[in-house]
Amino acid sequence: MTDKLSKRKILIHLVASIASMIIILFTLVSWLSSYTNHGETVTVPNIKGMKYAELKEYLGNKNLDVKISDSSMFLLDKGPGVVVEQDPRPNEQVKEGRTIYVSITRTVPPQVKMPNLIDVSQRQAEAILFSYGLRLGSMIYKPDLAKGAILEMSCKGKLLKAGESIAKGSKIDLVLGDGVGITDVAVPNLLNLSLEEAVFVLKGSALNVGEVSYPSGKLDSVNFFVVEQMPMPGDSVFIKQGESVSLKVVYQNKTERRYEY
What we know:
The chain is α+β, with helices and mostly antiparallel strands. 24% of the residues lie in helices and 36% in strands. A four-stranded mixed β-sheet has the order 7-11-8-9, covered by helices on one side. Strands 13, 14, 16 and 17 form a four-stranded mixed β-sheet that branches. A three-stranded mixed β-sheet has the order 2-5-3, covered by helices on one side.
């Protein structure tokens, strides 16, 4: 009888011990679940393109934190302090309070040497600026015979010299020649001259050949002579250097001594 009572007490103690352990484990698991917000997740928003200065408040409202992992990048098409990469990625599910690590563009751009653009064409200038991490700003034309050639380069109103340090990403304003000088020249008399002679005279006067009206079917001939010009010559007719004179030419048949229109 005594042995049966002893065994019963042992069994009762064993069951009580197991029950106590289960209660303790359940309580511990419940506490851990509550502490770690088990099952409570948030969706990571897409913050690429946002300013880092805006993220603290924006992510704070979503119970997320943010830290910078890299700030050394410079991108010509992005402003300073803009998010270009993030970890975790957008739409991932994470626990509340998770830190989002971001890579942002430099707040202070690096310095580059200003390239020499003087006398190059606009197209060349654009390509050179891009290769240096600079941007094309406004273009201003002023009277100069060097049509389309760069005469001056500046940034925010300050004239620049080749080799001068400038912030990468800066907009460079250019002054180009418009192909027309500031000097007035008398319109030369080109009537009855051959087309070759007329072109030679125009070049000597720093003028350009404008539209040339040829007789039908004679485009390959070299026997052209000027019969009309615009503007017409005259003692009081002046135009700017670099401007054009339009011509009408005819074909001279040397054998038959006649003109064909």
